Description:
Elements: H1 2-5, H2 9-17, H3 24-57, H4 61-97, H5 101-129, H6 133-136, H7 141-156, H8 158-173, H9 178-198, E1 201-207, E2 210-217, H10 220-246, H11 263-294, H12 299-335, H13 339-375, H14 379-392, H15 396-411, H16 416-441, H17 443-467, H18 472-478
Amino acid sequence: MAAKIKESKDDLLQLIRQGKPMTTAQQLRLVLQLSTPAILAQLTTTMMQYIDASMVGSQGANASASIGLIETTTWLMGSVCSCAAAGFYVQVAHLLGANDDKEARSVLRQALAAVISFGCIMGLIGLIISPWLPIWLGGNEDINATASVYFAIFSLGIPVFQTSMLGSGMLRSSGNMVIPSIMSVVMMTLDVIFNFFLIFPSRTVDFLGMELYIPGAGLSVVGAAIGTVCAECVVACSLMYFLCYRSKELRLTIDKGSFKPQWNYIKKALHIGGPMSIQQVIMSSAYIATTIIVAPLGTFAIAAHSFGIVIESLCYMPGYGIGDAATTLVGQSMGAGRKDLTRKFAYMSVALGMSVMAVMGIVMYVGAPIFMGMMTPVEEVRQLGVMALRIEAFAEPMFAAAIVCYGVFVGASDTLIPSGMNLVSMWAVRIPISALLAVSLGLKGVWIAMCTELCFRGVIFLCRLRWGNWMKLTIEKKQ
């Protein structure tokens, strides 16, 4: 019994790859072992956003609104880059599950060449549109110039973000959740340090009865952008080192291979990542549409909406962490042809995600005044933000269902239909209701629409998990 308790994550993953039986306790333990560091990684990422927002929020409502205005567009760029990486790291999960480590390293080489090049193209596109983006989104003259500069700096950092996403995704696909989690903590720490010196001006503070001089650049919103990019550079380089030189299965020093693009790998990546990318473009367009709906409601509404999204992410990021673990477990089970384990891991992951996010929803409802108070000193923004968060708290369990189910489907290479489900949910439910209710209820109506749509999305994803053929095609190919 003691020996079973001491089984490591790698030992349990080997049971999947070697086709050996696993008890329910072993399955649950593996889900928890992979989910826990992934949850911590997502939470630290969210804390970084929270700290960023609170530091900028101390500069006033206009500074917060500058970032809030283009925030959804940064999500769009980041999401598309994430999908490009997923097209390759899902292949790696399947190959490792099939014990084909050499082929997995070949996919990694292809990914390094293709995905990082894609990130450079995305960065260039962002840089080109940065002068006009705030105007397109309906911003006012008080915030447009700052928002434009912020987005330009963000765009310059997209190739770095792309590299970081690829490194983190590849390590997670191999079952290594620890290094990406540690790097998330490093990212948060460095971001706080850089922001501390870049956002605020030089100042003198009282420290234990002594006057202490603290240098600062006083760059406000621009400083936040520079600090984040600098921190991401350090993390991206570290992730690439661990992936290419230290990973047990994927380090490129084990053998030699070609980085020249090969169509068979690219085709598979497009099959997996293509629908995901199209989904993210259209869904992020829906987020942008929501921003356009909110923008006429005024600076306070824009700032409250932005802060509310950041705080809510403290609730839903654990779901994304569990979804990442589900992608790894389902992907490796698929690669091993283990239909029995595939469905069990899927159900366990979804149940865990819904439980965790239900608790987080309660925390968000109760703590909304405290969280918003930490974000901004502006009373009008606080009141709007608390109202929004308490509405959204009721949607968290079903939001978890949608998030983790999607992670399961990605691991199974089933991305087309789930992407369509997301699109229908956003454009047929959220946007029409938001536009309708914003007229009479303002920001409250927008968040009621969000809550309604997330509950609807959770229901349809649970239905597909239970009754859909999301793993049939892949299992048949493996057998």
